[in-house]
Protein backbone atom coordinates (compact mmCIF):
# COMPACT_ATOMS: atom_id res chain seq x y z
CA UNK A 1 0.00 0.00 0.00
CA UNK A 2 1.38 3.42 -0.94
CA UNK A 3 1.68 6.12 1.73
CA UNK A 4 -1.19 8.01 0.05
CA UNK A 5 -3.38 4.92 0.37
CA UNK A 6 -2.31 4.46 3.98
CA UNK A 7 -3.18 8.09 4.78
CA UNK A 8 -6.56 7.71 3.07
CA UNK A 9 -7.22 4.51 5.03
CA UNK A 10 -6.25 6.32 8.25
CA UNK A 11 -8.56 9.24 7.52
CA UNK A 12 -11.43 6.92 6.59
CA UNK A 13 -10.90 4.92 9.76
CA UNK A 14 -10.84 8.05 11.94
CA UNK A 15 -13.97 9.45 10.28
CA UNK A 16 -15.75 6.16 10.96
CA UNK A 17 -14.60 6.07 14.59
CA UNK A 18 -15.74 9.65 15.06
CA UNK A 19 -19.27 8.59 14.10
CA UNK A 20 -19.35 6.59 17.34
CA UNK A 21 -22.33 4.25 17.37
CA UNK A 22 -23.38 5.42 13.90
CA UNK A 23 -25.78 7.82 12.27
CA UNK A 24 -29.02 6.31 13.62
CA UNK A 25 -27.79 6.35 17.24
CA UNK A 26 -26.65 9.96 16.75
CA UNK A 27 -30.11 10.81 15.39
CA UNK A 28 -31.68 9.20 18.47
CA UNK A 29 -29.45 11.30 20.70
CA UNK A 30 -30.46 14.47 18.81
CA UNK A 31 -34.14 13.49 18.85
CA UNK A 32 -33.96 13.49 22.66
CA UNK A 33 -32.59 17.02 22.60
CA UNK A 34 -29.07 15.87 23.51
CA UNK A 35 -25.72 16.57 21.93
CA UNK A 36 -23.27 13.77 21.20
CA UNK A 37 -20.06 13.32 23.19
CA UNK A 38 -18.02 15.05 20.47
CA UNK A 39 -20.52 17.89 20.03
CA UNK A 40 -20.32 18.57 23.76
CA UNK A 41 -16.56 18.85 23.58
CA UNK A 42 -16.80 21.12 20.55
CA UNK A 43 -19.23 23.39 22.40
CA UNK A 44 -16.93 23.57 25.43
CA UNK A 45 -13.43 24.10 24.06
CA UNK A 46 -11.98 26.97 22.05
CA UNK A 47 -12.21 26.40 18.30
CA UNK A 48 -9.73 23.82 16.95
CA UNK A 49 -8.03 23.48 20.34
CA UNK A 50 -9.02 19.88 21.14
CA UNK A 51 -6.39 17.17 20.94
CA UNK A 52 -7.92 13.71 21.23
CA UNK A 53 -6.00 10.80 22.69
CA UNK A 54 -6.80 7.10 22.41
CA UNK A 55 -9.33 7.11 19.57
CA UNK A 56 -8.01 3.68 18.49
CA UNK A 57 -8.31 2.13 21.96
CA UNK A 58 -10.00 -1.30 22.00
CA UNK A 59 -11.48 -3.41 24.76
CA UNK A 60 -10.16 -6.92 25.48
CA UNK A 61 -13.46 -8.50 26.48
CA UNK A 62 -14.50 -11.79 24.89
CA UNK A 63 -17.58 -12.55 27.03
CA UNK A 64 -21.14 -12.55 25.72
CA UNK A 65 -20.38 -11.92 22.05
CA UNK A 66 -17.93 -9.11 22.73
CA UNK A 67 -14.95 -10.80 21.01
CA UNK A 68 -13.91 -8.66 18.05
CA UNK A 69 -16.78 -6.22 18.57
CA UNK A 70 -15.54 -2.71 17.86
CA UNK A 71 -16.71 0.02 20.21
CA UNK A 72 -15.43 3.26 18.66
CA UNK A 73 -13.04 5.13 20.95
CA UNK A 74 -14.15 2.63 23.62
CA UNK A 75 -17.26 4.75 24.24
CA UNK A 76 -15.44 7.73 25.68
CA UNK A 77 -13.73 10.67 23.95
CA UNK A 78 -10.74 11.90 25.94
CA UNK A 79 -8.04 14.51 25.55
CA UNK A 80 -7.22 18.15 26.24
CA UNK A 81 -8.31 21.51 24.90
CA UNK A 82 -8.46 25.13 25.97
CA UNK A 83 -11.47 26.88 27.46
CA UNK A 84 -11.28 30.66 27.37
CA UNK A 85 -7.57 30.31 26.52
CA UNK A 86 -6.76 28.02 29.48
CA UNK A 87 -6.08 24.29 29.15
CA UNK A 88 -8.40 21.63 30.59
CA UNK A 89 -8.30 17.84 30.32
CA UNK A 90 -11.57 16.10 29.69
CA UNK A 91 -13.50 12.91 29.13
CA UNK A 92 -16.87 12.74 27.38
CA UNK A 93 -18.83 9.49 27.46
CA UNK A 94 -20.43 8.48 24.17
CA UNK A 95 -23.91 7.07 24.80
CA UNK A 96 -24.16 6.01 21.14
CA UNK A 97 -21.45 3.39 21.81
CA UNK A 98 -22.77 0.58 24.04
CA UNK A 99 -24.70 3.18 26.03
CA UNK A 100 -21.46 4.88 27.12
CA UNK A 101 -20.92 1.88 29.39
CA UNK A 102 -17.59 1.85 31.19
CA UNK A 103 -15.32 -1.16 30.71
CA UNK A 104 -11.67 -1.58 31.65
CA UNK A 105 -10.18 0.36 28.71
CA UNK A 106 -12.92 3.03 28.80
CA UNK A 107 -12.03 3.78 32.43
CA UNK A 108 -8.29 3.63 31.72
CA UNK A 109 -8.77 6.33 29.10
CA UNK A 110 -10.57 8.52 31.65
CA UNK A 111 -7.77 7.95 34.15
CA UNK A 112 -5.17 8.91 31.53
CA UNK A 113 -6.96 12.25 31.04
CA UNK A 114 -7.14 12.73 34.82
CA UNK A 115 -3.40 12.11 35.10
CA UNK A 116 -2.94 14.69 32.36
CA UNK A 117 -4.75 17.16 34.62
CA UNK A 118 -2.67 16.19 37.62
CA UNK A 119 0.69 16.42 35.83
CA UNK A 120 -0.05 19.70 34.08
CA UNK A 121 -2.04 21.38 36.87
CA UNK A 122 -5.14 21.86 34.72
CA UNK A 123 -8.83 21.31 35.55
CA UNK A 124 -10.57 18.03 34.74
CA UNK A 125 -14.03 18.09 33.15
CA UNK A 126 -15.98 14.82 32.98
CA UNK A 127 -19.13 14.70 30.84
CA UNK A 128 -21.15 11.71 32.06
CA UNK A 129 -23.67 9.95 29.80
CA UNK A 130 -23.54 6.25 30.53
CA UNK A 131 -25.40 3.09 31.47
CA UNK A 132 -22.67 2.54 34.10
CA UNK A 133 -20.30 -0.38 34.51
CA UNK A 134 -20.14 -2.42 31.27
CA UNK A 135 -21.97 -5.54 32.30
CA UNK A 136 -20.15 -7.93 29.95
CA UNK A 137 -16.76 -7.05 31.47
CA UNK A 138 -17.71 -7.98 35.03
CA UNK A 139 -14.96 -7.32 37.57
CA UNK A 140 -12.84 -5.50 34.96
CA UNK A 141 -15.44 -2.76 34.68
CA UNK A 142 -15.80 -2.49 38.46
CA UNK A 143 -12.01 -2.24 38.77
CA UNK A 144 -12.06 0.46 36.07
CA UNK A 145 -14.48 2.54 38.12
CA UNK A 146 -12.34 1.93 41.19
CA UNK A 147 -9.38 3.52 39.39
CA UNK A 148 -11.49 6.51 38.36
CA UNK A 149 -12.63 7.02 41.97
CA UNK A 150 -9.05 6.73 43.27
CA UNK A 151 -7.86 9.36 40.83
CA UNK A 152 -10.83 11.64 41.62
CA UNK A 153 -9.51 11.65 45.17
CA UNK A 154 -5.90 12.19 44.01
CA UNK A 155 -6.99 15.22 41.99
CA UNK A 156 -9.19 16.60 44.77
CA UNK A 157 -7.81 19.87 46.09
CA UNK A 158 -5.05 19.89 43.44
CA UNK A 159 -7.02 20.78 40.30
CA UNK A 160 -10.69 21.76 40.00
CA UNK A 161 -12.90 18.85 38.90
CA UNK A 162 -16.26 19.51 37.26
CA UNK A 163 -18.80 16.82 36.33
CA UNK A 164 -21.56 17.34 33.81
CA UNK A 165 -24.39 14.85 34.02
CA UNK A 166 -25.93 14.80 30.56
CA UNK A 167 -27.72 11.44 30.56
CA UNK A 168 -28.03 8.41 32.82
CA UNK A 169 -25.59 8.20 35.72
CA UNK A 170 -26.68 5.22 37.79
CA UNK A 171 -25.31 2.92 40.42
CA UNK A 172 -21.75 3.24 41.67
CA UNK A 173 -21.01 5.37 38.60
CA UNK A 174 -22.64 8.28 40.41
CA UNK A 175 -19.79 8.25 42.93
CA UNK A 176 -17.27 9.70 40.49
CA UNK A 177 -19.25 12.95 40.10
CA UNK A 178 -19.88 12.93 43.84
CA UNK A 179 -16.10 12.91 44.40
CA UNK A 180 -15.62 15.96 42.16
CA UNK A 181 -16.05 19.60 43.15
CA UNK A 182 -19.13 20.56 41.15
CA UNK A 183 -21.98 18.68 39.46
CA UNK A 184 -23.92 20.32 36.65
CA UNK A 185 -27.00 18.25 35.83
CA UNK A 186 -29.15 18.68 32.73
CA UNK A 187 -32.94 18.44 32.76
CA UNK A 188 -32.99 15.01 31.10
CA UNK A 189 -30.22 13.52 33.22
CA UNK A 190 -30.99 11.02 36.00
CA UNK A 191 -28.68 10.19 38.89
CA UNK A 192 -29.30 7.50 41.45
CA UNK A 193 -27.55 4.65 43.21
CA UNK A 194 -30.50 2.29 42.92
CA UNK A 195 -33.15 2.95 40.31
CA UNK A 196 -36.96 2.83 40.65
CA UNK A 197 -37.30 -0.92 39.88
CA UNK A 198 -34.71 -1.97 42.47
CA UNK A 199 -36.29 0.33 45.06
CA UNK A 200 -39.72 -1.12 44.34
CA UNK A 201 -38.37 -4.63 44.81
CA UNK A 202 -36.46 -3.77 48.00
CA UNK A 203 -38.86 -1.48 49.83
CA UNK A 204 -42.10 -1.48 47.88
CA UNK A 205 -41.84 2.26 47.25
CA UNK A 206 -42.93 3.44 43.80
CA UNK A 207 -41.33 6.46 42.19
CA UNK A 208 -40.52 7.59 38.66
CA UNK A 209 -36.91 7.87 37.48
CA UNK A 210 -37.40 11.62 37.08
CA UNK A 211 -38.75 12.10 40.57
CA UNK A 212 -35.99 9.96 42.02
CA UNK A 213 -32.95 11.15 40.12
CA UNK A 214 -34.00 14.17 38.08
CA UNK A 215 -32.27 17.49 38.58
CA UNK A 216 -34.85 18.88 40.98
CA UNK A 217 -34.54 15.89 43.27
CA UNK A 218 -30.75 16.04 43.21
CA UNK A 219 -30.67 19.81 43.69
CA UNK A 220 -33.58 20.72 45.99
CA UNK A 221 -33.72 17.66 48.18
CA UNK A 222 -30.36 15.92 48.23
CA UNK A 223 -27.99 18.77 47.42
CA UNK A 224 -26.01 16.41 45.17
CA UNK A 225 -26.22 18.73 42.13
CA UNK A 226 -24.71 22.21 42.26
CA UNK A 227 -26.23 23.56 39.06
CA UNK A 228 -29.24 22.56 36.97
CA UNK A 229 -29.34 23.32 33.23
CA UNK A 230 -32.22 23.06 30.74
CA UNK A 231 -29.98 21.30 28.21
CA UNK A 232 -26.41 20.40 27.27
CA UNK A 233 -25.55 23.81 25.83
CA UNK A 234 -26.68 25.62 28.98
CA UNK A 235 -24.73 23.11 31.11
CA UNK A 236 -21.60 23.78 29.06
CA UNK A 237 -22.08 27.54 29.40
CA UNK A 238 -22.29 27.15 33.18
CA UNK A 239 -19.14 25.01 33.10
CA UNK A 240 -17.21 27.68 31.16
CA UNK A 241 -18.39 30.43 33.47
CA UNK A 242 -17.48 28.42 36.55
CA UNK A 243 -13.99 27.73 35.18
CA UNK A 244 -13.51 31.47 34.58
CA UNK A 245 -13.52 32.12 38.35
CA UNK A 246 -11.08 29.35 39.19
CA UNK A 247 -7.32 28.98 39.06
CA UNK A 248 -6.05 26.01 37.06
CA UNK A 249 -4.64 24.39 40.19
CA UNK A 250 -4.03 24.80 43.91
CA UNK A 251 -0.72 26.64 43.57
CA UNK A 252 -2.04 29.31 41.22
CA UNK A 253 -4.13 32.33 42.09
CA UNK A 254 -7.48 32.70 40.34
CA UNK A 255 -7.34 34.71 37.10
CA UNK A 256 -7.62 38.44 37.72
CA UNK A 257 -9.66 40.14 35.02
CA UNK A 258 -9.09 43.67 33.82
CA UNK A 259 -11.85 45.65 35.47
CA UNK A 260 -13.19 49.00 34.43
CA UNK A 261 -15.83 48.72 37.13
CA UNK A 262 -15.64 51.82 39.28
CA UNK A 263 -16.31 52.08 42.97
CA UNK A 264 -18.96 54.57 43.87
CA UNK A 265 -20.86 54.60 47.15
CA UNK A 266 -24.13 52.72 46.65
CA UNK A 267 -26.63 54.56 48.84
CA UNK A 268 -29.31 51.90 48.24
CA UNK A 269 -27.27 49.63 50.54
CA UNK A 270 -27.97 52.04 53.44
CA UNK A 271 -31.63 51.09 53.45
CA UNK A 272 -31.54 47.56 52.09
CA UNK A 273 -31.66 45.91 55.52
CA UNK A 274 -35.06 46.63 57.11
CA UNK A 275 -34.83 48.39 60.45
CA UNK A 276 -37.43 45.98 61.85
CA UNK A 277 -35.43 43.19 63.43
CA UNK A 278 -37.56 40.35 62.09
CA UNK A 279 -38.37 41.67 58.62
CA UNK A 280 -37.04 39.56 55.77
CA UNK A 281 -35.16 40.70 52.67
CA UNK A 282 -33.34 38.93 49.85
CA UNK A 283 -29.61 38.96 50.56
CA UNK A 284 -28.90 38.45 46.85
CA UNK A 285 -29.84 42.12 46.42
CA UNK A 286 -26.91 42.95 48.69
CA UNK A 287 -24.50 40.55 46.97
CA UNK A 288 -25.18 41.85 43.46
CA UNK A 289 -24.49 45.41 44.66
CA UNK A 290 -21.08 44.43 46.01
CA UNK A 291 -19.68 42.60 42.99
CA UNK A 292 -18.59 43.68 39.52
CA UNK A 293 -21.55 44.16 37.19
CA UNK A 294 -23.86 42.45 39.70
CA UNK A 295 -22.74 39.20 38.07
CA UNK A 296 -23.21 36.42 40.64
CA UNK A 297 -22.80 32.70 39.87
CA UNK A 298 -24.88 31.12 42.61
CA UNK A 299 -24.02 27.54 43.60
CA UNK A 300 -26.82 25.18 44.75
CA UNK A 301 -29.46 27.94 44.60
CA UNK A 302 -32.35 25.61 45.42
CA UNK A 303 -30.75 23.55 48.18
CA UNK A 304 -30.61 24.92 51.74
CA UNK A 305 -31.70 28.31 50.43
CA UNK A 306 -31.27 29.77 53.94
CA UNK A 307 -27.61 30.19 53.02
CA UNK A 308 -26.45 31.64 49.71
CA UNK A 309 -23.05 30.70 48.28
CA UNK A 310 -21.43 31.51 44.97
CA UNK A 311 -18.80 33.31 42.97
CA UNK A 312 -18.41 36.93 41.93
CA UNK A 313 -15.61 39.40 41.28
CA UNK A 314 -14.56 42.57 43.00
CA UNK A 315 -12.45 44.80 40.74
CA UNK A 316 -11.66 41.72 38.65
CA UNK A 317 -10.66 39.47 41.56
CA UNK A 318 -12.59 36.22 42.10
CA UNK A 319 -14.27 35.94 45.48
CA UNK A 320 -16.36 33.23 47.09
CA UNK A 321 -19.40 34.70 48.81
CA UNK A 322 -21.23 33.08 51.72
CA UNK A 323 -24.33 34.88 53.00
CA UNK A 324 -27.22 34.13 55.32
CA UNK A 325 -30.55 34.46 53.53
CA UNK A 326 -33.06 36.17 55.87
CA UNK A 327 -35.95 35.42 53.50
CA UNK A 328 -35.66 31.64 54.14
CA UNK A 329 -35.91 30.29 57.72
CA UNK A 330 -34.90 33.82 58.81
CA UNK A 331 -31.39 32.89 57.64
CA UNK A 332 -30.87 30.42 60.51
CA UNK A 333 -28.16 27.81 60.05
CA UNK A 334 -29.50 24.28 59.90
CA UNK A 335 -27.93 20.94 59.00
CA UNK A 336 -28.11 21.37 55.23
CA UNK A 337 -27.02 25.02 55.27
CA UNK A 338 -23.99 24.06 57.37
CA UNK A 339 -23.02 21.28 54.95
CA UNK A 340 -23.49 23.56 51.96
CA UNK A 341 -21.59 26.50 53.47
CA UNK A 342 -18.71 24.43 54.86
CA UNK A 343 -18.09 22.59 51.60
CA UNK A 344 -18.04 25.82 49.64
CA UNK A 345 -15.61 27.41 52.10
CA UNK A 346 -13.30 24.40 51.76
CA UNK A 347 -13.43 24.57 47.98
CA UNK A 348 -12.51 28.29 47.99
CA UNK A 349 -9.71 27.67 50.46
CA UNK A 350 -8.29 24.79 48.41
CA UNK A 351 -8.16 27.00 45.32
CA UNK A 352 -6.96 30.30 46.80
CA UNK A 353 -10.25 32.15 46.38
CA UNK A 354 -10.79 34.86 49.05
CA UNK A 355 -13.94 34.52 51.14
CA UNK A 356 -16.45 37.29 51.70
CA UNK A 357 -19.02 36.40 54.38
CA UNK A 358 -22.22 38.44 54.82
CA UNK A 359 -23.86 37.87 58.18
CA UNK A 360 -27.48 38.21 59.24
CA UNK A 361 -28.07 35.10 61.32
CA UNK A 362 -30.44 34.58 64.25
CA UNK A 363 -28.57 31.42 65.30
CA UNK A 364 -28.61 27.70 64.64
CA UNK A 365 -32.11 26.43 63.87
CA UNK A 366 -33.80 25.11 67.01
CA UNK A 367 -35.76 21.86 66.77
CA UNK A 368 -35.89 18.21 67.72
CA UNK A 369 -35.24 17.08 64.13
CA UNK A 370 -32.18 19.30 63.96
CA UNK A 371 -30.74 17.99 67.23
CA UNK A 372 -31.49 14.36 66.41
CA UNK A 373 -30.15 14.89 62.90
CA UNK A 374 -26.83 16.00 64.34
CA UNK A 375 -26.82 19.80 64.07
CA UNK A 376 -23.88 19.69 66.49
CA UNK A 377 -21.61 17.83 64.10
CA UNK A 378 -22.99 19.48 60.98
CA UNK A 379 -22.82 23.00 62.40
CA UNK A 380 -19.28 22.28 63.57
CA UNK A 381 -18.29 21.88 59.91
CA UNK A 382 -18.76 25.63 59.43
CA UNK A 383 -16.42 26.38 62.33
CA UNK A 384 -13.92 23.81 61.10
CA UNK A 385 -13.97 24.99 57.50
CA UNK A 386 -13.57 28.68 58.32
CA UNK A 387 -10.95 28.08 61.02
CA UNK A 388 -8.94 25.87 58.67
CA UNK A 389 -9.17 28.34 55.79
CA UNK A 390 -6.03 30.41 55.20
CA UNK A 391 -7.26 32.46 52.22
CA UNK A 392 -8.18 36.11 52.86
CA UNK A 393 -11.29 36.07 55.04
CA UNK A 394 -13.49 39.17 55.18
CA UNK A 395 -16.74 39.30 57.15
CA UNK A 396 -19.47 41.94 57.00
CA UNK A 397 -22.07 41.84 59.78
CA UNK A 398 -25.20 43.44 58.37
CA UNK A 399 -27.76 42.82 61.10
CA UNK A 400 -28.08 39.86 63.48
CA UNK A 401 -25.03 37.88 64.55
CA UNK A 402 -26.14 35.79 67.47
CA UNK A 403 -24.55 33.06 69.49
CA UNK A 404 -22.54 30.22 67.99
CA UNK A 405 -23.74 31.23 64.55
CA UNK A 406 -21.88 34.57 64.94
CA UNK A 407 -18.67 32.56 65.23
CA UNK A 408 -19.68 29.97 62.61
CA UNK A 409 -20.16 32.77 60.06
CA UNK A 410 -16.45 33.54 60.07
CA UNK A 411 -16.25 35.44 63.36
CA UNK A 412 -13.08 37.32 64.25
CA UNK A 413 -11.69 34.61 66.53
CA UNK A 414 -11.35 32.20 63.59
CA UNK A 415 -8.34 34.31 62.48
CA UNK A 416 -10.59 36.31 60.22
CA UNK A 417 -8.60 39.09 58.59
CA UNK A 418 -11.24 41.80 58.67
CA UNK A 419 -14.64 42.01 60.33
CA UNK A 420 -16.73 45.00 59.30
CA UNK A 421 -20.10 45.81 60.82
CA UNK A 422 -22.88 48.01 59.54
CA UNK A 423 -24.46 50.37 62.11
CA UNK A 424 -27.52 48.06 62.03
CA UNK A 425 -25.45 45.13 63.36
CA UNK A 426 -26.54 43.38 66.56
CA UNK A 427 -23.96 41.10 68.10
CA UNK A 428 -24.96 39.13 71.17
CA UNK A 429 -25.13 35.70 72.74
CA UNK A 430 -28.79 35.53 71.80
CA UNK A 431 -31.68 37.72 70.65
CA UNK A 432 -33.14 40.23 73.15
CA UNK A 433 -36.45 38.42 73.74
CA UNK A 434 -34.81 35.09 74.56
CA UNK A 435 -32.05 36.73 76.60
CA UNK A 436 -34.31 38.68 78.99
CA UNK A 437 -36.45 35.58 79.55
CA UNK A 438 -33.35 33.79 80.79
CA UNK A 439 -31.50 36.39 82.81
CA UNK A 440 -34.46 38.42 84.17
CA UNK A 441 -37.00 35.62 84.71
CA UNK A 442 -37.50 36.47 88.38
CA UNK A 443 -37.62 40.25 87.87
CA UNK A 444 -40.28 39.83 85.16
CA UNK A 445 -42.34 37.40 87.26
CA UNK A 446 -42.25 39.65 90.33
CA UNK A 447 -42.97 42.92 88.46
CA UNK A 448 -46.28 44.69 88.96
CA UNK A 449 -46.69 44.88 85.20
CA UNK A 450 -44.65 41.97 83.80
CA UNK A 451 -45.18 42.95 80.16
CA UNK A 452 -44.03 46.52 80.74
CA UNK A 453 -41.05 45.29 82.74
CA UNK A 454 -40.12 42.83 80.01
CA UNK A 455 -40.29 45.54 77.32
CA UNK A 456 -38.06 47.80 79.45
CA UNK A 457 -35.52 45.03 79.94
CA UNK A 458 -35.54 44.20 76.23
CA UNK A 459 -34.88 47.86 75.42
CA UNK A 460 -32.03 47.94 77.93
CA UNK A 461 -30.53 44.73 76.52
CA UNK A 462 -30.79 46.10 72.99
CA UNK A 463 -29.08 49.31 74.03
CA UNK A 464 -26.18 47.33 75.50
CA UNK A 465 -25.62 44.51 73.03
CA UNK A 466 -27.76 45.02 69.97
CA UNK A 467 -25.25 47.41 68.45
CA UNK A 468 -21.81 46.82 66.94
CA UNK A 469 -20.05 49.21 69.34
CA UNK A 470 -19.49 46.77 72.20
CA UNK A 471 -17.96 44.28 69.72
CA UNK A 472 -15.84 47.03 68.14
CA UNK A 473 -14.57 48.05 71.59
CA UNK A 474 -13.45 44.44 72.12
CA UNK A 475 -11.95 44.40 68.57
CA UNK A 476 -14.27 41.60 67.48
CA UNK A 477 -15.25 44.13 64.85
CA UNK A 478 -12.41 45.95 63.09
CA UNK A 479 -14.48 48.83 61.83
CA UNK A 480 -18.08 50.01 61.67
CA UNK A 481 -18.77 51.25 58.16
CA UNK A 482 -21.51 52.93 56.18
CA UNK A 483 -23.22 50.19 54.13
CA UNK A 484 -22.92 52.32 50.97
CA UNK A 485 -19.12 52.08 51.27
CA UNK A 486 -18.90 48.31 51.64
CA UNK A 487 -17.69 47.58 48.11
CA UNK A 488 -14.82 50.05 48.53
CA UNK A 489 -13.82 48.47 51.85
CA UNK A 490 -13.94 44.98 50.31
CA UNK A 491 -11.84 46.04 47.31
CA UNK A 492 -9.25 47.72 49.55
CA UNK A 493 -9.05 44.73 51.86
CA UNK A 494 -8.66 42.28 48.97
CA UNK A 495 -5.81 44.44 47.70
CA UNK A 496 -4.13 44.59 51.10
CA UNK A 497 -4.53 40.83 51.60
CA UNK A 498 -3.47 39.84 48.09
CA UNK A 499 -0.07 38.72 49.41
CA UNK A 500 -1.47 37.02 52.51
CA UNK A 501 0.51 33.96 53.61
CA UNK A 502 -0.63 32.00 56.62
CA UNK A 503 1.23 28.91 57.70
CA UNK A 504 -0.16 26.15 59.85
CA UNK A 505 1.52 23.26 61.65
CA UNK A 506 2.23 20.24 59.43
CA UNK A 507 -0.17 17.34 59.93
CA UNK A 508 -1.49 14.50 57.84
CA UNK A 509 -4.98 15.95 57.88
CA UNK A 510 -7.49 17.32 60.34
CA UNK A 511 -10.76 15.59 61.14
CA UNK A 512 -13.66 17.66 59.87
CA UNK A 513 -16.84 16.56 61.69
CA UNK A 514 -18.84 14.52 59.16
C1 LIG B 1 -23.33 -2.76 28.78
C2 LIG B 1 -25.04 -1.32 28.27
C3 LIG B 1 -25.13 -0.89 29.62
C4 LIG B 1 -24.23 -1.50 30.55
C5 LIG B 1 -26.60 0.16 28.49
N1 LIG B 1 -25.98 -0.63 27.61
N2 LIG B 1 -26.11 0.01 29.73
N3 LIG B 1 -24.15 -2.23 27.86
N4 LIG B 1 -23.35 -2.41 30.08
N5 LIG B 1 -24.25 -1.14 31.83
C6 LIG B 1 -26.21 -0.74 26.19
C7 LIG B 1 -27.52 -1.42 25.85
O1 LIG B 1 -27.38 -2.83 25.81
C8 LIG B 1 -27.76 -0.86 24.45
O2 LIG B 1 -26.94 -1.56 23.55
C9 LIG B 1 -27.23 0.56 24.55
O3 LIG B 1 -26.34 0.55 25.65
C10 LIG B 1 -28.28 1.59 24.82
O4 LIG B 1 -29.07 1.15 25.92
P1 LIG B 1 -30.66 1.18 25.90
O5 LIG B 1 -31.13 0.37 27.04
O6 LIG B 1 -31.14 0.77 24.53
O7 LIG B 1 -30.96 2.71 26.07
P2 LIG B 1 -32.09 3.41 26.93
O8 LIG B 1 -33.42 2.78 26.64
O9 LIG B 1 -31.93 4.87 26.66
O10 LIG B 1 -31.74 3.09 28.44
C11 LIG B 1 -30.56 3.57 29.02
C12 LIG B 1 -30.35 2.95 30.43
C13 LIG B 1 -30.45 1.41 30.34
C14 LIG B 1 -31.39 3.52 31.38
C15 LIG B 1 -28.96 3.42 30.90
O11 LIG B 1 -29.61 0.95 29.26
C16 LIG B 1 -30.03 0.73 31.58
O12 LIG B 1 -30.79 0.67 32.53
N6 LIG B 1 -28.82 0.20 31.57
C17 LIG B 1 -28.28 -0.52 32.71
C18 LIG B 1 -27.97 0.40 33.84
C19 LIG B 1 -27.29 -0.27 34.96
O13 LIG B 1 -27.94 -0.95 35.76
N7 LIG B 1 -25.98 -0.23 34.99
C20 LIG B 1 -25.16 -0.81 35.96
C21 LIG B 1 -25.12 0.19 37.11
S1 LIG B 1 -24.16 -0.41 38.41
P3 LIG B 1 -27.30 -1.76 21.99
O14 LIG B 1 -26.25 -2.68 21.50
O15 LIG B 1 -28.69 -2.34 21.95
O16 LIG B 1 -27.23 -0.42 21.38
C22 LIG B 1 -22.73 0.28 38.12
C23 LIG B 1 -21.72 -0.19 39.09
C24 LIG B 1 -20.56 0.70 39.14
O17 LIG B 1 -22.52 1.06 37.29
C25 LIG B 1 -19.83 0.26 40.31
C26 LIG B 1 -18.67 1.07 40.58
C27 LIG B 1 -18.13 0.70 41.93
Automatic annotation (TrEMBL):
MF annotations from Gene Ontology: acetyl-CoA carboxylase activity; propionyl-CoA carboxylase activity; transferase activity
Cellular component terms per the entry's GO annotation: acetyl-CoA carboxylase complex
Coiled coil: none
Chain ranges of the CoA carboxyltransferase N-terminal domain: 1-258
Keywords: Transferase
Domain CoA carboxyltransferase C-terminal: 264-496
InterPro entries registered for this protein in UniProt: AccD/PCCB (IPR051047), AcCoA_carboxyl_beta (IPR034733), Acetyl_CoA_COase_Trfase_b_su (IPR000438), ClpP/crotonase-like_dom_sf (IPR029045), COA_CT_C (IPR011763), COA_CT_N (IPR011762)
GO biological process per UniProt: fatty acid biosynthetic process
Record-linked SUPFAM superfamilies: ClpP/crotonase
KW Transferase (keyword) present: yes
Signal peptide: none
Protein name: Biotin-dependent propionyl-CoA carboxyltransferase
The organism of origin for this protein: Citrifermentans bemidjiense (strain ATCC BAA-1014 / DSM 16622 / JCM 12645 / Bem) (Geobacter bemidjiensis)
Amino acid sequence: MSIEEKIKALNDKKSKLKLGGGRSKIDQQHAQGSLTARERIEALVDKDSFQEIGIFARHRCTNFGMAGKELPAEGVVTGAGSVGGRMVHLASQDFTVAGGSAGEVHSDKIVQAMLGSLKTGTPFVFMNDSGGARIQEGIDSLAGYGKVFYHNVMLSGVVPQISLICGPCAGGAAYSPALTDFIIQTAKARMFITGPSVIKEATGEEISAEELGGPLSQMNHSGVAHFVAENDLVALRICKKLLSYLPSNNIEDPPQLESDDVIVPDKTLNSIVPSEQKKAYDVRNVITRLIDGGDFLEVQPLFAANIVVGFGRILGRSVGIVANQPSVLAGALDINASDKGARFVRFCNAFNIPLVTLVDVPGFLPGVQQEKGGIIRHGAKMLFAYAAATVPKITVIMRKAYGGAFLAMCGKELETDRVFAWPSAEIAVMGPQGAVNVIFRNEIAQAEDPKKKRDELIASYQGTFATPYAAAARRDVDDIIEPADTRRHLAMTLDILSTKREFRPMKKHGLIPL
